[in-house]
Every structure is written in structure tokens, then in C-alpha cells.
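Q: Start with the shorter request: fold the first protein.
A: Done. Sequence, then structure:
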Amino acid sequence: MAKTILVVDDEPDLVEVVRYNLEQAHYRVVTAASGSAALRRARREAPDLIVLDIMLPDLFGT
């Protein structure tokens, strides 16, 4: 079973580049565009790794 990575960023183009490359490396990728969406997604998906933008519009990633 593939490891799951949650990619959190509010820039859709960047998310797609990261998603594409991680999927090419055989990871399962889920995404979120805000801090609050990321929290919900992380609770639901229980990802193995989170790639997090620390300057999100609604929550800081620190």
C-alpha cells in the first residue's frame, strides 16, 4: 500500500507540480488549500507525511 502525503498550499499550480512528482514516485497524494481544510483532511486521512506551506491565509503552519 502506498504511503499517503498531504500537500497543503494555497497556490494551485505549486500543488499540482508537487502532486505530479510525488505520484510519479508512487505516493498517494491528498491536498488542502487552507489550514482549516488541512486539519480536517489530516484527521480524515491520517497521512504519513505533511508538506505544509507555513504562510497560509487562515492559519500559520508553525
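Q: Next, the second protein, separately.
A: Sequence, then structure:
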Amino acid sequence: MIRVKLPVHLRTLTRVSGEVVLEVEGPITQRSILDALEEKYPTLRGTIRERITLQRRSLVRFFACGQDLSHAPMDAPLPDAVATGAEPFLIVGAMAGG
């Protein structure tokens, strides 16, 4: 089981409170987590990644085990703590403005 923490606006969109728990098959990567998340919650398609290119939206960041993984390869394995469910995968809305 993979634990995912979503920002408030995405929790509202998915109608969940707290963490989301996902069953992810195969290697645990950013791509496999996002694929499983969008499969379970279709309303998230196009909110975290672009619909066509599947690239991370510019104002969304990914974190795991205290590391910013936003620019890491999408198919790189995530830390074992995330893969075992000991630590959550964090999806965070970046701050912008002036």
C-alpha cells in the first residue's frame, strides 16, 4: 500500500480527507503512483499532470522522505520507505505570486 498526501484543493476534488491509500503494481515510481491515483480518482486527470504529455504541472511539486523529487525522472524508483508505506508520497501545490 502506498500512502499519498494531497493538497487541500485536490482532497476536496476527490472528496477524501487525510491520506489516500493506493495499491500500486510493479516498481514504485512517481509515474506508477500518479497513474494509480488518476485511475482511482479520475477527477484528478489534468490537475497534477498535463492530460496529453503527462508532464508535471509547473505549480505542483513532489516530495518523498524530505527530498524534492519534482525534477527527478518519473520512472526512477522511489525510496523504500515510500514503497513500503512507512512514509507518504507528498503532492504539494507550489506558491506563486507577488
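Q: Describe the second briefly.
A: The radius of gyration is 13 Å. The chain has one domain: 2-93.
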